[in-house]
Amino acid sequence: LVSPLDSAAPVVVVAAMSNPFGISNPELGRRLDFVRSLVAKKHPVDDPEPSLIAEGLFIGNKHHAADVGQLCRLGITVVLNCAPSGIRALPLDDYEAKGIRYAVTNVKRDDTSYPLLHDRAGVRSAHLDVAKEVFDAARRAGGRAMFFCVAGQNRSATLAVAALLLCDQPLPKVLHSCAARRPFVLENEGFQRQVVELEALLLAQQPRGRFPQANVQGEKRLMCSGDYIADQPTPNKKPRTVCGLETTVEEVGRLLIGSVGRTLEAEQAFGF
User: Residues 85, 106: contact at Cβ < 8 Å?
Assistant: First the structure.
């Protein structure tokens, strides 16, 4: 016979990690709080031009996609339509005349349950494969890509953030860039969750991978590229400067990213 105590223990473990992403519900909640602390802000009245969120990658809306002159001025060489096929009257002939490549991935819906990045089993979507291929092609050619949808807020922004994650860009760095340049992105809570799940999958594949602890309580912690070091502040230690930033943490961590083994230094502090 199995006692109630013996039978209860495994159930707790399974409930905590019963998903293919290797992230517990409490950690998922903390990471989502971190995401929402930076983005998902109110959409502005004016959105005059696409937002450069990383080298070679813009997020824009349907109006930006129709302004070929602006695309040329910004050096955009490829546009990815992340909206449903309902966007009409795109200047495809003008794109061709100006040497702008047009690509499309038909994201039919933007409700919270739509599997934009992956399904609930963690299987990557065709949308994300297309987004990664478009961004890679633009970089190889020395050009710039713009991902756009109707508002440049959810579908295109989520795919842009995810493409950067697949290029070894740490999520905190990407979100800080979005917060500075286009803070109203990632309003869709289902897409927020998929971004965090993708981050967890990628971190699990990295050497020394461990899930970062988000600074949602206001502690002074050092944010490294893809990792967080020294969870507790050290009030009795004198502040010191690391990578040009004053911090009170005792240690500075480094995280090896991807097969090339690049060492990314701590580069940004938050909570100050």
Answer: yes
Q: What is the pTM of this model?
A: 0.73
Going 89 to 51 to 55 to 213, the CA torsion angle's sign is: negative
DSSP track, 127-182: HHHHHHHHHHHHHHTT--EEEE-SSSSSHHHHHHHHHHHHTT--HHHHHHHHHHH-
174-198 pLDDT tens trace: 999 999 999 999 999 999 999 999 9
- Residue 38 near residue 175 (C-beta atoms within 8 A): yes
Q: Beta strand pairing status for 262-264 and 255-257?
A: antiparallel
E-assigned strands of the chain? 51-54, 57-60, 78-81, 101-104, 145-148, 221-223, 228-229, 240-242, 245-247, 255-257, 262-264, 268-270
- Given this model, what pLDDT does residue 255 score? 27
CA separation, residue 194 to residues 47, 96, 119, 123 (Å): 26, 34, 9, 11
Question: Per the structure block, which two tokens stand in for 245?
Answer: 């930033």
Cα–Cα distance measured from residue 185 to residue 203, given in angstroms and rounded to the nearest whole number: 23
Query: Whole-angstrom Cα distance, residue 210 to residue 203?
Result: 7
57-60 and 145-148 beta bridge pairing: parallel
Instruction: Please write the tens of the pLDDT for every residue from 220-233.
Output: 332 333 333 233 33
The CA-based angle 243-246-248, given to 5 degrees, is 115
